[in-house]
Amino acid sequence: MSRDLLIELGTEELPPKALPALSAALSDEFVRQLDEAGLRHGAVERFATPRRLAVLVRDLDEKQADRDVERQGPAVQAAFDQDGKPTKAAEGFAASLGLSVDQLDRQDTGKGERLVAKITEQGKPTADLVADFLAQAIQKLPIPKRMRWGRRHVQFVRPAHWLVALFGDQTVPFELLDLPTGRTSYGHRFHAPGAIELANAGEYAQRLEQEGHVIADFDRRKALIEEQTIAAGKQAGGTAQINPELLDEVTALVEWPVALAGGFDVDFLRVPQEALISAMEEHQKYFSVLDADGKLMSTFITISNIESRDPRQVIAGNEKVIRPRLADAAFFYDNDCKKPLARHADGLAQVVFQQKLGTLADKCQRIGRLASVIANQIGGDSALAKLAGELSKADLNSEMVYEFDTMQGIMGYYLARREGQPDDVAEALYEQYLPRFAGDALPRSKTGMAVSLADKIDTLVGIFGIGQKPTGTKDPYALRRATLGVLRIIIENQLDLDIYELLHEAAQSLSGKIDSAHVQDAYDFIKGRYRAMYQEQGIATPVILSVLAIDDACRRPLDFDRRVNAVAAFQQRDEAQALAAANKRVSNILAKLEQAPPEEIDGALLEEPAEQTLTDLVVDAYERSEPLLEQGDYQSVLAMLAELREPVDAFFDQVMVMAEDPAVRANRLALLTFLRDLFLNVADISLLQE
């Protein structure tokens, strides 16, 4: 037999940004315990609104099934005395299970013989388990700081007011958070504040919506808000911009969403639209509307939690509230426009970047120098890159960025455009922070690439240089993210740059401030990020390690990428494992040598047909692979080397490498060295062996 189980906890308004996580954690932990208890069930539905967390488990078993279990007792040696009589340990174990000692079995556990009881454990009614399961689930919720309320001693994220526990049409009686369970829920705080007596668990969502003006399903409410917002944007003649994080937050703020469109003075549109959008989203939780050209319109969309009889009053109230926010943004912008970027940059001499690494003004000078070097190497304008680097942090001294930290780089872009700086310089001031997160856009201009790389490399070398490398989960300077950004910019923009060389270039500008010995640590850190980046792309770890083993490949990220993709393709070939094994065998042989083999193969010492054949093919492969290696066409190189599988197998089957004649032995070892080096021109494929 099975029934639906409903648990609902009613509270004061829950933290909106935490609501989805709280709902998921409560549901997942509660259901995990049901599963662990062996209780079968159907679909699990979770509900979350500002004033409630709820879980509905469909078709839940009414009772656990009886289970045959095996309990281990004391070791036989401790269970009986010298006369073979049961000790207190044996009698106590048997009594705890309602058995006598002679009903116990013996079992060899591999660590000695123990007493064992095989019993049938009676399943418990589900209703008897719910209270403990829910208490544990609530205790494990990700709540950084719990609170008390009134005279109660219990703690929760917000004051709790009611608790529903219905199994089918029956209440499950228990008390939690000083609240007795019942079947009474409550509707919308304003539209339907009265009690809603639930007849059974399954009617929960429908009754709340029909009688309580509450759409309890978070995802359904979210979809409705998105639909209403898009429609309101179209009606205003534009396209609503739906920030996913804002959508989640707004969904967590309302129980009965109603989208309303308001407006503001068009004069505010002279302010950078990113600042206006930031003000609307962060302070008022409004959605912005863009026109067909991607320009901000003087329209916003707010999601009301009530269905007002006079929507115009609600809109007017929101318009009144947003006006001072936008006026502040306009004030900051106007003040910032009174000074050129260079004047803003002057103030950076008083802003410390890092105590041992100097001020932001120092950092800008270093970025400019390194960006100039990089731009020269990638075909950019070194003078523009130097200028952009020197101005890169100027907007951090602006009033706009001080008020809206999301405007860093963006404000610099607008100020540069306003004062007539070259387009490349303006773009670079924005692009220096790209990519900001995994999957984010990359700089598009050569100047932007140069400045972004220079900024990240300078930070990487500087922080490692003063001995503050990331440890565990601690990465205060976001060096992992910066390094992945460096690799993405170089690889995806097909830039032929030597990262090792750039690290040392950056270190020169930091001379006197850092320990240059730590530059190698920074380089090793970058090599570690290769592994993380390609693992995330689904590349097998042995493939990545085979290329990491070639140090020269690690210096050039673009070259590393080509090698990794070539080895990944090679690994899928039928010949891959046999050649990997052969390379492993060769590596082991050569590693045991006390002196290096000859640098040339002596044709007169080739005795066996198999070694003659392999020598001819190896020599030919060297000639054919040389132009391919120069082009970075590693896939073609490995495809060609795959042809060596049969001759290599024949060599090992028919030729004794460690021949008695020292000259013949040395000659064969030289051949194996040449064979191994052919593959090492791409990767150490011996690491591919399964």
Briefly say what this structure is:
The protein has 690 residues and is α+β, with helices and mostly antiparallel strands. Helices cover 50% and strands 14% of the residues.
Question: Characteristics of this structure?
Answer:
alpha+beta, 27 helices, 5 domains, 690 residues, 4-stranded antiparallel β-sheet, Alpha-Beta Plaits, flat, 5-stranded antiparallel β-sheet
In what range is the share of β-strand residues? 5-15%
Number of helices: 27
Largest sheet: 5 strands, antiparallel
Give the fraction of residues assigned to helices: 40-55%
Molecular shape: flat
Overall domain count: 5
Q: Which value, in Å, is the CA radius of gyration?
A: 35 Å
Q: What is the average of the pLDDT values?
A: 93
Explain what the structure shows.
With 690 residues, the chain is an alpha+beta fold. The chain folds into five domains: 2-64 and 125-212, Alpha-Beta Plaits, CATH 3.30.70; 67-121, no CATH class; 221-336, no CATH class; 342-538, Hypothetical protein af1432, CATH 1.10.3210; 575-688, Isoleucyl-tRNA Synthetase, Domain 1, CATH 1.10.730.10. Helices cover 50% and strands 14% of the residues. The strands form six sheets. It has a five-stranded antiparallel β-sheet, with helices on one face. The chain has a four-stranded antiparallel β-sheet with strand order 13-15-16-14, with helices on both faces. A hairpin with a 5-residue loop joins β15 and β16 (296-304).
Q: Could you give the topology of this structure?
A:
Elements lengths: L1 E10 L7 H18 L7 E6 L2 E10 L5 E9 H4 L8 H9 L8 E4 L4 E9 L4 H14 L20 E8 L2 E2 L3 E2 L2 E2 L3 E3 L8 E3 L6 H9 L5 H18 L3 E3 L2 H8 L6 E6 L9 H12 L2 E4 L5 E9 L6 H26 L4 H6 L5 E3 L3 E2 H19 L3 H10 L7 H5 L6 H9 L4 H9 L14 H20 L13 H14 L6 H11 L9 H18 L4 H8 L2 H5 L1 H15 L4 H16 L17 H23 L2 H8 L3 H10 L7 H19 L10
Antiparallel strand pairs: 1-3, 1-7, 2-3, 4-6, 5-6, 7-8, 9-10, 11-12, 13-15, 14-16, 15-16, 17-18
Helix pairs in contact: 1-4, 6-7, 8-9, 11-12, 11-16, 11-18, 12-15, 12-16, 14-15, 15-16, 16-17, 16-18, 17-19, 17-22, 19-20, 20-22, 22-25, 23-27, 24-25, 24-26, 24-27
